[in-house]
Amino acid sequence: MTTLDIAHLRLHNQRLSESEFKKPADVVKWLGAMQAQDYLGAKWALGLRMQDASDETIEEAFATGDILRTHVMRPTWHFVARADIRWLLKLTAPRVNAAFSYNYRKFELDDAVFKRSNKALANALRNGGQLTRENLRTVVQRAGIAADNLVRFIHILARAELDGVICSGGRTGKQFTYALLDERVPKTKVLTRDEALSKLARRYFTSHGPATLQDFAWWSGLTVADARKGVDMVEGHLIRDVIDGKTHWFPSSMPTIKRAGPIVCLLPAFDEYLIAYKDRSAAVGGKQATPGNIVFSSAIVIGGRVVGSWKRTFKKDAVIITLSPFSPLNKAETLAVTEAAHRYGSFLGLTAVLA
Predict the structure, then answer these.
(1) Residue 247 is assigned to a structural domain of this protein
(2) DSSP structure class, residue 189
(3) Beta strands 351-354 and 318-325, pairing class
(4) Distance in angstroms (rounded) separating the CA atoms of residues 317 and 301
(5) What tens digit of pLDDT does each residue of 302-312 get?
(6) Residue 114 belongs to what domain range?
(7) DSSP 8-state class, residue 169
(8) Measured at the alpha carbon of residue 87, what is the angle toward residues 85 and 93, in degrees to the nearest 5?
């Protein structure tokens, strides 16, 4: 297997080359979780992996709680399927809390403070309440907890998410709200730690493979030891191959992949195709993840390789797409990228115009 094969298999397994999914929750469940701090971009990441997707369909799934947006890994925002949030939080929250521990100490946030803040938040949201961040900031302050410092307050909310008290509600206009997890998510079977670890490992390598142990540890935020344990528990469902001196794992049931032509995608920033791996060389060559580089940008991908970046600008009835390829595109590539841009416009219900 070559680096090019890795890229093509990832396109297939991430459902970027073709997809059977018709619901946003099915995509999120397949991938395990999807990084989602850029909400508009994350909706498009879902749309790329669905049939007949629209921004409206995904917004509705978010409003009803079929997909949730919360801090669950690495620590940043992720989309999570409603059926998965409880066991995922139980598995990953200790690691996210460890990542936040310096700021907890810096802002004098301890278990006693969190107990009070969680109680105040739960009382405010009970019986179907959905409140914005600023609404909840007032709630916390009235409970006698300092929240003047926005960063301190954000950590209070994040801890309530990690403790399974709150999760995302629907949006009010363009503002996000929070709701009670227990009212938004039915009780589910309690998994043991090993059951959750094996489940996450199998999901990751099935949907993201070929990938390495280090890739899985990076994506999940788990320790390398836990990541290795997860791989050991599911290796019977995976194929192991050494590529360029590194052991990669991918699903054992792989179909023959047709290559009628290169797959062309306009990926949003932080898309799983790039962000979900510690080693991104299969897609970006020798470029690694440094602030401001292509890994964290909206990327033009042709045949599994990043060939440039793009950005969007919204007008009244149109989205203006500006392309910045690393080198000039040929005629066939230009036509394919134009089609990809129109797909994005259709997803938004707008006319796409290439600048």
Answers:
(1) yes
(2) P
(3) parallel
(4) 26
(5) 999 999 999 99
(6) 84-187
(7) -
(8) 80
* Cβ atoms 283, 274 nearer than 8 A: yes
pTM of the entire predicted model: 0.94
**Do you know the residue count of the chain?**
355
Where does 81-184 have alpha helices with state H? Answer: 85-106, 111-125, 133-142, 150-162, 181-184
Note whether 306 and 283 are within 8 A (CB).
yes
| Residues in Cβ contact with 126 at an 8 Å cutoff, skipping those fewer than 6 apart | 180, 183
Name 234's Cβ contacts closer than 8 Å, sequence gap at least 6. 198, 201, 202, 205
Task: Answer for the pair 319, 268: CB distance below 8 angstroms, yes or no.
Answer: no
- Cβ atoms of 163 and 93 closer than 8 Å: yes
Residues 253-274 have pLDDT tens digits of 766 656 556 899 999 999 999 9
Radius of gyration of the chain (CA): 21
Domain count, the chain: 3
Same domain, 90 and 157: yes
- Cα separation, 102 vs 265, in Å, equals 39
Which CATH number goes with the domain that contains 115? 1.10.10.10
Structure tokens at 332: 């066939």
- HEC string of 236-283 equals HHEEEEEECCEEEEEECCCCCCCCCCCCEEEECCCCHHHHCCCCCHHH
Residue type, 226: D
